[in-house]
Design a protein that fits this description.
Length: 280
């Protein structure tokens, strides 16, 4: 009787691996700066934030990253399932997702200047898993505002803190939010370079959608960065920048343009077949 013995070598595959049989999937990610400041700093926030909450609720995104959801703003948004930072301080960070939240972590930035010193901006990390076992690590952040070299140096230091925070991530990574960064400002060169050197890809640049999100100069503050990991690849497919006035029938409820990023996530196991012996 003929017998054939075949050995299979599958890189990074082990019994019980969550990505052994997972298929490629597209994920919709949205970042929204809710502009949760009170009057007279901003227009009255109760009707504005209600509009933002209704707009988010009416969508079907897998993950929504939110900034400026300050303590006094939460009650006006009416967003079931919203997860906010806990503990002391008010960083205004929150998220909402349809995926299983396995764990969260948070951090407050060590440095801040000017008005930013009245709050405690930082980062909020969530380790997520889809029903098919696909993992995803999401980090929401809101960095130092303002022009000038001093503010640029603070943002560069805050990037370092965010990069330290993602070291605890599993699987593909998305960092999104209000970075207050723009390539046209020389003071942001160091922060942007650090993100690139860490292997993070700018979704807007990958998809060639560099539309601005804030102010008369159309600075591209609101953005997303991605990076694969642990046997998973992630690739930006599209970036959509919404006109803030489209969130409401009246005046624009926020001064930032929300940004939707669609990414593709798939396992990257390399498989090879090696015939280690054959008997005929």
């Amino acid at each position: 009787m003929r017998s054939i013995r075949i050995g299979l070598t599958i890189g990074a595959l082990c019994l019980g691996s969550s990505n052994a049989f997972a298929a490629e999937r597209e994920v919709s990610l949205l970042t929204v700066n809710a502009w949760g400041l009170p009057a007279p700093i901003a227009p009255p926030r109760k009707p504005r934030l209600a509009d933002v909450g209704r707009w988010i609720t009416g969508r079907q995104d897998d993950f929504v990253a939110m900034q400026e959801v300050w303590d006094g703003a939460v009650k006006h948004m009416d967003l079931p399932g919203m997860v906010r930072s806990s503990g002391r301080g008010d960083d205004g960070l929150a998220f909402r997702t349809s995926w299983t939240v396995e764990s969260t972590a948070q951090g407050r930035f060590e440095r801040a200047r000017g008005w930013d010193g009245f709050k405690q901006k930082g980062w909020l990390r969530a380790q997520l898993r889809a029903e098919d076992g696909t993992p995803l690590c999401l980090v929401v952040t809101h960095m130092q505002a303002g022009k000038g070299r001093a503010n640029g140096r603070v943002r560069a230091s805050q990037v370092v803190e965010v990069l330290e925070a993602v070291s605890g991530c599993e699987g593909p990574l998305v960092v999104m939010g209000d970075f207050n960064l723009d390539e046209r400002r020389p003071e942001d060169e160091l922060a942007l370079r650090r993100l690139t050197q860490a292997g993070l890809s700018d979704a807007g640049r990958v998809t060639q959608n560099l539309r601005g999100t804030w102010g008369p100069d159309a600075f591209r503050f609101d953005r997303a960065y991605v990076r694969g990991g642990d046997g998973w690849a992630i690739e930006p497919r599209s970036v959509e920048v919404f006109d803030p006035s489209s969130l409401s029938e009246g005046r624009a409820p926020t001064d930032h343009a929300p940004v939707r990023v669609v990414v593709s996530i798939k396992p990257t196991l390399s498989a090879g077949v090696a015939v280690v012996a054959a008997e005929w």
